[in-house]
Amino acid sequence: MEKTQVAIVGLGTVGSGVAKLLLDYGDRTARHAGRALWLEEVVVRDVNKSRVCELPAGILSNDLSRITRNPEIKVVAHLVGGLEPARSIMLKLLEGGKDVVTANKALLAEHGPELFDRARALGRSIAFEASVAGGIPIIANISTCLSANQITSLHGILNGTSNFILTQMEDRGWDYATALAEAQRLGYAEADPAMDVDGSDAAQKLAILAHLAFGARVHWRDIPRVGIDTLDGADMRYAKELGYRIKLLAVAKLERDGLELHVSPTLVRIGTPLAEVRSANNAIRVVGDAVGPVFFHGLGAGQMPTASAVVADLIDTVVGRTAITFKLLNLWSQQPPRVHPRDYSQVTGRFYLRFDVEDRPGVMADITGVLGRHGISIASVIQNEPSGDGAASVVPLVIMTHTTTEGATRAAMEEINGLVCVHSRSVRMRVDD
Amino acid sequence: MEKTQVAIVGLGTVGSGVAKLLLDYGDRTARHAGRALWLEEVVVRDVNKSRVCELPAGILSNDLSRITRNPEIKVVAHLVGGLEPARSIMLKLLEGGKDVVTANKALLAEHGPELFDRARALGRSIAFEASVAGGIPIIANISTCLSANQITSLHGILNGTSNFILTQMEDRGWDYATALAEAQRLGYAEADPAMDVDGSDAAQKLAILAHLAFGARVHWRDIPRVGIDTLDGADMRYAKELGYRIKLLAVAKLERDGLELHVSPTLVRIGTPLAEVRSANNAIRVVGDAVGPVFFHGLGAGQMPTASAVVADLIDTVVGRTAITFKLLNLWSQQPPRVHPRDYSQVTGRFYLRFDVEDRPGVMADITGVLGRHGISIASVIQNEPSGDGAASVVPLVIMTHTTTEGATRAAMEEINGLVCVHSRSVRMRVDD
Questions:
Q1: Residues B295 and B315 in one domain
Q2: Partner residue facing A308 (CB), from B291, B299, B324
Q3: Which residue has the higher pLDDT, B51 or B373?
Q4: Which of chain A's termini has less CB crowding within 10 Å, N or C?
């Protein structure tokens, strides 16, 4: 049987999973590729680091030139995290004539234009299925399977860490800090979880998907985003009373005046597919104008789900499908964007608002008066009796609005926060209906 | 811009949808294909039939040779239903040098080996995304996106008509006949719904998926199948009491001794994704040994969802991806199967059993005695009080078993049906846990 030599740079969790699939399950890759994918070199920073992964003798080194100078190696799985040296390594691989498969979404979100332009100039390809939603093949589905559609919206649960924490908070009634500690103990959250829980990771993935699905050219830092790190368990309970769950939703939605884009904790109606996504799973609901809604659900991270995506890309690259798709899609090119982001303050939706207010006459009138002046119409209100301990004369007031705008609710909140009857931080969250 | 000429044979519901996408949305197909897909010919049986679809002048005819003799036409959407003349038309197209895209699952399930061998011999390709699950791109996902996996199981709701009827029966408390009539009135069921409701349609789709995912070579008629056409609304209510919904499930599951394959009304636990598939939707849960479970949900039929799949295949064929995949997958070839079906009587699972029994002492002992002799262990029992009208001394006895086999439960049922205390037809359904 013919063979194609491949290499791996970076032997962390995902790299080890890819090595395992190539070494232990060569029969299946060979069946799908029509040739053996032969793991010829594995390059790491520190060859002395202890590793779980068992490699054939002589293929592990810290010398990237063993890959770049070997013309027999055609395709390289680039599984190095972070921005540098990940960026330099990818450029060296492309310049060495290698097609590249990567799982590094941060790198694409930050340096996509440079890397893709370089690959095009050199006649090489970059495949990146593993960069978004781990094992769910959302890149291929948007890029090719749904190509007959104008995609009109995309709602994703794209950060497994956040979803795990939210599930724990809901199921166990924990506060954010306790749920985060549990996620860290179980390996679902990094020691420094900032990018996961503040919405940055989801925004990076959303920027990639919005580029593929809509031709948007938006830097992830320009996507309005709120994380789950300031979420109060009390709001999860009020949401539940109203028939909703809170999910960190990444949304891209095509409207007449542009593309709505945001990442934020959002109330999602219980019983709808996105509300039922539990634990560290990911899910994406894509609506196409021909196909209607298509829903994808699976493991968004983890060694083998991510390795599954990387190896599928390796196969696609070896057999020539990637070269075709890469050339046609012309991603992150100098072409003008097909759509611009909407002014976020004009983005519409329903909102969940919660105020901690003094329990005395006139407060409700003050607050609803401000909402009314901003043109915000109220759909429902929850105001429970104050707890019986007599200590607090502050009670939570929860308001669900009818459809309004980001701008109106933000302005109203600022004004309401200035009222003397309103204590502590008020809460505002989007509602997905 | 370069253009590639394409043609359509058959201008029914799906054909009209494909024409619409090609004619009205040429910009998007051009963007994904890097060239215009130019609709050059549309061939139908009867040119005088009135049609909703507006075509450019001069392209409609009843003359297939206008396609087969035109060397400029490279790819043809074959949207003719049934087996003949669908088969002959496809052979003529292949022999005319055309790559073919089809939505006809019955044709593939029946004549796949002949058609694919012929295509291979002629250096042509057949694409068939639209043949299973309409708008859900399950063929591409199994064939390429999940290619790093050994798929270990596949659970599908593949017949939208059946699922629509089941949803109506459950939501409205209707019996089967009433729900079927409603499905026919709304266009979700054909005048002759036999293939949809007796499990044949789902078995044809399952045969295709099992071939792709497992390398099985099973004729759909050899897949054990039960339809929903004998389903009693009472069992839906008992199932619900037990925490389950009844779904027409198509299952392929890899076990040590072969591939478990069947289509049958199955109790699915409420709250799991498959149980929440409503109305005429389709869904497939695929488990891969690397990726874990991946769940796909969408519209399984209808004009535009199916046209979406056909046009994606047209694009894949025009750009050359299909040729690569078709050659590599070597589907329906003379290669030996990679797996054989398991003996159905050995297939394990939990079962739901319902007996209408006389309401007198000893009956429970008679029935559980038979079950015990067949090695069937009981997980739970529901026996309600007889209804108060005093007319009937016959009461339903519902038993959920622990894990046992098809063979044991079938044999036990036959024996129990022979008991004098058992009235009317007993019911046996699989439980998916």
A1: no
A2: B291
A3: B373
A4: N
